[in-house]
Amino acid sequence: MSWHASVLTLFPEMFPGPLGQSLAGRALRDGRWSIDSLDIRSFATDRHRTVDDTPFGGGAGMVMRPDVLDAALGAALATGGDRPAVYLTPRGRRLDQAMVRDFVAGPGLVLLCGRYEGVDERVIEARGLQEVSIGDYVLSGGEPAAMVLLDACVRLLPGVMGAAESGVEESFSDGLLEYPHYTRPADWQGRAVPPVLLSGHHAEVARWRRAEAERITRERRPDLWARYTENAAAPGAMDGRPAAA
Ligand code: 9WO
């Protein structure tokens, strides 16, 4: 069976959404991955199909009930292999490309999308949910974060990226940000393309791109730059780079 995502949400019609388009959409139609969204509300047991309640201890807003979420997680985890269950939340571990690679190496994911003020803490503990954040901002729910995580995973699945794009991880593969890109026209509104790119000297082009990627990384992301230069110091790492100090 292919890589499978189950999304638990109060808005199942949001999926596949943007993931049904473009690269991810073609891969979905080709059967390279699959997705099902489960309506959390369908696991409620009372007449009014209640999924949330007021917080113990008082305060504003509502909290998603652990019993309803546990039933939904149980149903999702019963299918599709032994998949990690992830709760998308700003307090989770920050998503990075290494985490994405790990997720892609497994059979798929079960993604819990919260709404309101969040979910009862006990279901996170009881189900061993892995808490993942896509960045330091608050959304109105976990759904857009689940889409981001799935997009990052799906493009790494075997056969999803064509041979042409198969420098699969242009940014981050070697720990650097992308170098600048140019296409026709060679002169646009008085702005010329860097001449080296028109020179036909492949080695010089490669050297220029590496230097630009390093400059941009150093200027914009000192954190990535520090890690990159540490790795460069390790024996045997990255064939004698960096080129620019
Ligand atoms: C609401 C809130 C209000 C005041 C102070 C802190 C607060 N946190 C939240 C909150 O986390 N609300 C969540 C809405 C409940 C769980 C789902 N929601 C969510 C997930 N918003 N943002 C995300 C998210 C997920 C992954 N990465 C970044 C953001």
Report on this model:
With 245 residues, this protein is α/β, with parallel strands linked by helices. The protein has two domains: 152 residues, 3-Layer(aba) Sandwich (Alpha/beta knot), CATH 3.40.1280; 65 residues, Trp Operon Repressor, Chain A, CATH 1.10.1270. The protein is 32% helix and 17% strand. The chain contains seven helices and nine strands, in the order βαβββαβαβαβαββαα. A five-stranded parallel beta sheet has the order 2-1-6-5-7, sandwiched between helices. Strands 3-4 form a two-stranded antiparallel ribbon. α6 packs across α7. It is elongated, with a radius of gyration of 22 Å. It starts with a strand and ends in a 12-residue tail after the last helix. The mean pLDDT is 93. Bound molecules: ligand 9WO. Ligand 9WO binds next to β5.
List the helices and strands and how they pair.
Blueprint: E1 3-9, H1 22-29, E2 33-39, E3 52-53, E4 63-64, H2 66-77, E5 85-94, H3 97-105, E6 108-113, H4 121-126, E7 130-133, H5 143-154, E8 187-188, E9 191-192, H6 202-220, H7 222-233
Helix pairs in contact: 3-5, 6-7
The protein binds ligand 9WO.
Bound molecules: ligand 9WO
The arrangement of helices and strands along the chain is EHEEEHEHEHEHEEHH
Can you list the strand order of the major beta sheet? 2-1-6-5-7
For the secondary structure, the number of strands is: 9
* CATH fold category name of the largest domain: Alpha/beta knot
Task: From the alpha carbons, calculate the radius of gyration and give it in angstroms.
Answer: 22 Å
Number of domains: 2
How far is the N terminus from the C terminus? 48 Å
Assembly category: single chain
Q: Provide the CATH top-level class of the largest domain.
A: Alpha Beta
